Amino acid sequence: MLTGKVAVITGAGRGIGKAIALQFVQQGSKVVVNYRSSVKQVEELLDSIRNAGGEAIAVQADVSNEADAKRLIEEAVKQYGRLDILVNNAGITKDNLLMRMTEQEFDSVLDTNLKGTFFCTKYAATVMLKQRCGKIINISSVVGLMGNVGQANYAASKAGVIGMSKAVARELASRGITVNVVAPGFIETDMTEQLSDKVKEATITNIPLKRYGVAEEVAGAVGFLASEAANYITGQVLQVDGGLAM
Ligand SMILES: NC(=O)c1ccc[n+]([C@@H]2O[C@H](COP(=O)([O-])OP(=O)(O)OC[C@H]3O[C@@H](n4cnc5c(N)ncnc54)[C@H](OP(=O)(O)O)[C@@H]3O)[C@@H](O)[C@H]2O)c1
Fold this sequence. Notes:
48% of the residues lie in helices and 15% in strands. It has 246 residues and is an alpha/beta fold. Strand 2 (30-35), helix 2 and strand 3 (56-60) form a beta-alpha-beta unit. Bound molecules: NADP nicotinamide-adenine-dinucleotide phosphate.
C-alpha cells in the first residue's frame, strides 16, 4: 500500500511510533525514524527493519526545537530525495492537578506535543508543496476531545493539534496535501504503564470494548490515512479508542 513512499515518523523508537514505523516498512515505505533519547531501542528497530529487507535511517532530533525539526526533514530529503508522509507522533505527559501544575509542566508538554507538530509540519510542507502531494497525520488523543483530570496541559496540547490540523488541511488542500488526525484512547505503551492499576481498572469500565488498545491498532489507522485509499479524506479526526469517546 505504501510501496516506494518516504515517511518521517517522529518519536518512533518505541510505543505507537515504533509500531507505525514497522507497519509502514511492511507496506513498502522507506522510513525515517526520529528519536530524542532512545538510542538503544532505535538501533534494535533499525536492525530488525533491515534484517527484514526494509529501508530505514534514524535521525536524532528534539522536535520541540525548531532547528532540530528543520534538520530532521532536511536529512530525510537528503537521504531519500523526497517526502511523502509525515507522522507527528512524538508526545509527552507531565500530569498534575490544575492548582499544582507549574508553568514548566505546562510549557514542556505544549512545546513537544503542539509546537513540535507545528515545526515538523511547517518544514515537511515546504517539501510537499513543491511536490504537490503529501500526507500528514498528527497523533492527538481522546483527551483532546474529552479532557481528563490532571491533564490540563496535555488536553490543551492535543486539542490544539486538532485545531491546527484542520487549519493546515484547509491551507494545503489545493496543493494535493492532506492533513488528518488519529486520536487514540488508552493504548498499552510506556505512557500508560505509569498509571496505577486502580486508574487502569476505572478507565476500562468506561471503554465499551472493555480493554486498552495496542500500538498496532493505532498504526493500522495511521497506515490507512497514509495510503491512497484515503486520498479524498482531509481535516478529519479518526478515533481509535474502543468507543470511549463516541
Ligand atoms: N499510549 C496512549 O494511551 C496514548 C493515547 C493517546 C495518544 N497518545 C499519543 O501517541 C503518541 C505516542 O505515545 P506512546 O504511547 O507511544 O508514548 P511513549 O511510549 O511514551 O513514546 C513517546 C515517544 O515520543 C518521543 N518523544 C518525546 N518527546 C520528544 C521530543 N521532544 N522529540 C522527539 N521525540 C520525542 C519519545 O522519544 P524518546 O524515547 O527518544 O525520548 C518516544 O519515542 C504521543 O503523541 C501520545 O500523546 C498515546
